[in-house]
Structure prediction request, 447 residues.
Amino acid sequence: MGTVEAKKPEAPAAAATGTRSALTLTDQRTGKSYEIPIADGAIRAIDLRQIKTGPDDFGLMSYDPAFMNTASCKSRITFIDGDKGILRYRGYPIEQLAEKCTYLEVAYLLLYGELPNRKQYDEWVQHITYHTMIHESLKKLMDAFNYDSHPMGMLISTVAAMSTFYPEAHNVHDAAVRTKQIHRLIAKMPTIAAFAYKHSMGMPYVYPRNDLSYCENFLTMLFKTPAEDYKPNAALVKALDVLFILHADHEQNCGTNAMRGIGSAHTDPYSSVAGAAAALYGPLHGGANEEVLKMLTEIGSVPKVPAFIKEVKEGKGEKRLMGFGHRVYKNFDPRAKIIKRMAEQVFEVTGRNPLLDIALELERIALQDDYFVKRKLYPNVDFYSGLIYQAIGIPTAAFTVLFAIPRTSGWLAQWGELLEDPEEKIARPRQIYLGSEERNFVPIEKR
Ligand code: ACO
Prediction:
C-alpha cells in the first residue's frame, strides 16, 4: 500500500521571521491564554480540550457540522485545490492521467502510490481479469430482487453479501488478505453492476470474458445477448475508461468518509464498500448524475431553460440545479471540463444526445447569472457524465452504479491508508447535547 513520502509543507513566514508555528488563544471566560501548535496548516482539535472554565468542565470542543473545516485524516492519495480547480492523484494531474492511462493503471496508482511498470501492470491486470466471476449463489441472490429494483440497491446489497462468501476478509490487518479482497472487489464490481442491469431488463446474465479489457468486458456483459454477438465500439470503450479514471477518487467526499468511518471499526472491506456505495447513492452525491438526466428531461427543450433557472432561484435552495455546485470546487470542476470535451467525441459515434443542447443552455445562463456566480456554482462531474452514459445506451437508473465501479479503487486505497495509519482509531465524533436535563419517568396513564 501507499509508501510514497509526502513532502512536508514548509512554513516560510515562520522560518523567515523566527516566529513559532502556533496559535495563541485567550479564553475571555477565564482570561487564560493558551498556545496551540500548528502543523501542516491545522491545529489539533484535541488541543482545545485543555481549555476549561474549571475542573468539572469537559473542555472546549470544536463544532463543525458537515465537516466544513475539519481534516479527518492525513492522506497522500488525492490532492484537490477547489479554488483553482486542480485535481491530482498521487501528484499526477487528472488531465494527464485521463489522456495517457487506462483505468486499471490509475487504480494501481491510487492503491500503491506509483504508476506500475510493465511487469507490475501485466500482473495487476491478470489478477483483476481472473477474479471477475461471481459465486453462483451470489447470482441467485441477485435473482431474488424484484424486477424493478434500483440497480444501486442491488449493487449495495450484493456487495455487502460478499462478506459472507469471503469470511477471511474480516482479517483486515493481514496485508495479503487485504490484497486478495482488493482484487476481488475491483474485478467483481462490473460483473455485479452488469448483472443488476440485466436483471432489471429481464435478460439472462452475460458472464465475464478474460480476453477483453476491463471496460470492453463491462460493456459486453451489459449489452451482449444470447441472440447475437456484440463488439464494443473502441471510442466508447475509451470514453468509459476515461470516465472511470475521473471518478476513481476524490479525497474525503461523503462516500469515502463513510468508507473510512466504517473501516475504522475494522469492518471487512465488502461491508465497508457497501456502506460507502450507500452514501454515494444519495442525490446530493453520486446520485446526482441520475437527477441531472431527470432534470434535463423534465425541462424538455431549450426555450424552457430560463423558466427553470427562475424556479431554482426562487426556490431558495428547495429546488437545485442538479450537477451544479460542489463543496470543494468553488471554481470549475476539472473533471467536468474533460467530460464536456469527451461528450462531443462520443456523440460523433452515437449521434448527438438531444438533451445536450438543454445542458449547454443551462450552463450558459447559469454561468452569467448573479445567483450562481455569487455562490460560485459551476458544473460538477455529474453534469455531463449522464449524457455520455445515456448515449452509450445505459439506462438512467444505472448511472450511479457506473460511478461506484471506479470509485471502488479510491475507497480501497483510502481504506488501506487508514489501516496503516499509526494514528488510526475508531471514528467517533463528539456532540453538543441540547436535550432535556435528567427527569423522572411518568407512567403512561399520567402523561
Ligand atoms: N442549485 C441551486 N442552488 C445551489 C446549488 C444548486 N445546485 N448548490 C448550492 N446552491 C446554493 C444553496 O442553496 C446555498 O444558497 P444560500 O447561500 O442562499 O443558502 C449556497 O448555494 C451554498 O449551498 P450549500 O448547500 O451550502 O453548499 P454545499 O457545499 O453544502 O453543497 C452540494 C454542495 C451538495 C454539491 C450542492 O452544491 C448541491 O446540492 N448540488 C446539486 C447536487 C449535485 O450536483 N451533487 C453532486 C456533487 S459532485 C459529487 O458528489 C460527485
